[in-house]
């Protein structure tokens, strides 16, 4: 093919147009290839064999274009290490019409009618990666593709283009995923993903993790995922021994190692991907070019500040560009770290408009700087809501004086925010799906009146201020815009938080009751990353936080301890003890009650042999009624007569209820279902009503890995959360799926149903 037919885009993205009829093999004659003719490339005197060690990939399907990707090197060189210019090669890309079906993912010879035959160069400048944008394609159509160098063939890939924006489309099916930490758990989910019938895949970020040996990466991992190597990686401060990607070579090395997994390669061969990044493509909880490995320095004049690493950010950008098949431009000449623009949109007929946002590159500092608080706890995690909104208001006042009220409190930045608004407002599609990295659902813990919780935690807290909860004003601005403009059927698809959620995002979460619904947020768990639950569970295993443990997990034995405390407090109250925090007065009342034979002494002794297996109570905190699992555990201990404490407590409650009912009703006649709510240590002791922290959350599974599949029609969006089984004896489980949860949203209805 004549090189002049290329449009050479900035940052070595080449482009060419497909021809429906005529294309010649590279270096061959001008004769047209018919549908059945051989597609063998020209022979070469050079006998060198080549490898495609990171497979192939297709990305950003539009109605007339696609981006195709590979990386090629001579077969005898290290597939991960970067190589010099001597390893450059010329590579042929063939694109054929139709689904290559059984050939997909194999290294067979691609067949079919050729629509493009393009010559490309794999250069050391881009680590021998190649990306090519092919235009002139037909909409809603399958194509096959293969790269060939000197007779060595990549595997055969396939992709499906999007339907033209004005086309009627009856159905669309896609998966969304995030958080695929190589170093923990397993990637069996990718094997499962291969079996799905999908038009494309959306990746919401954390495609790589920039660290190795971090606390959250030290759990068990499948045997085939060996230790990752960083050519230059720097040690993190402190003595954790963890290292992080520092240089371009490091970031490249991570993509190359992650992409060496054959399951991930097969997924890329089968489905085009639309990817955005989150924090770990650069640095944990990053904003702009700033990192949060330490708490930064505090300057009362400027506010606190994290460490800015512009060169490192630019390297991270470049590696993402080199390895992800995205229709974006990389501008190495750009000043600062704005070398890429990732936010972009896609149309799939009249059925769906997909709007992908970048929630890291233009982000302002966290509202409460770590440096001011001295710790990530209190600034990014478990943040007092009142303090958060007070500081946000201060920053908005400064921003207002400078011309943009949201400038210092923004995730999107003004340009992207304006683009987001106009894109959504002008969209004619039935469904507007927002590829959004961090959850829009408020995740709060109102611990102001919770018994037993450490006093430092007895506040109204947001669990994670790195997500939209930490940028409430901008969230309100966006969601208010949706409401004011009556934009219907907006659904966010989200990753980041390593757990599944579904709920209704509100423009104003402080309204009581919440009455400003704007969109539905569907949040997928990580593909492999350690769960949100795990982070909190390991925190409250620390004896210093033991009194907050019941908010995260309990057990049979733990629930019995709670029953003993509740019983003791109840007895002390009846005995007239006014200060229930005075443990000697409480225990004196208990001793007196035992001596008076009001309660058996065994009711205050832990039962031997009760299970200590952790039972998740964090789901109740996030998306249910706080304490309901503990109440159920105590009720079960009572019903099965496994614990005298539980039986005694349940008996007293039944007696109380019977007394209130009166009319000769006895405790034995009170059904267990009426007793159970009062076994909840967090419930209102008079009404039995349990606290609900987040009434907008309809579903929460905080301890999960998996991905989500969406099936879209004009009338309905159906989503399946596919939760996957953990490692079994260090091996990938033979049965990958543990549980499917079906969710549905009806067109025109701002609600998500859990089926
Ligand atoms: Fe993640």
TrEMBL record:
Disordered: annotated span: 293-312
Annotated InterPro entries: Metallo-depent_PP-like (IPR029052), PhoD-like_MPP (IPR018946), PhoD-like_sf (IPR038607), PhoD_N (IPR032093), Phospholipid_Metab_Enz (IPR052900)
Keywords for the protein's UniProt record, in alphabetical order: Signal
Residue stretches making up the PhoD-like phosphatase metallophosphatase domain: 174-540
PROSITE patterns: PROKAR_LIPOPROTEIN (PS51257)
Residues in the signal sequence: 1-24
Domain Phospholipase D N-terminal: 54-161
Name by which UniProt lists this protein: Alkaline phosphatase D family protein
Naturally occurring in which organism (per UniProt): Deefgea piscis
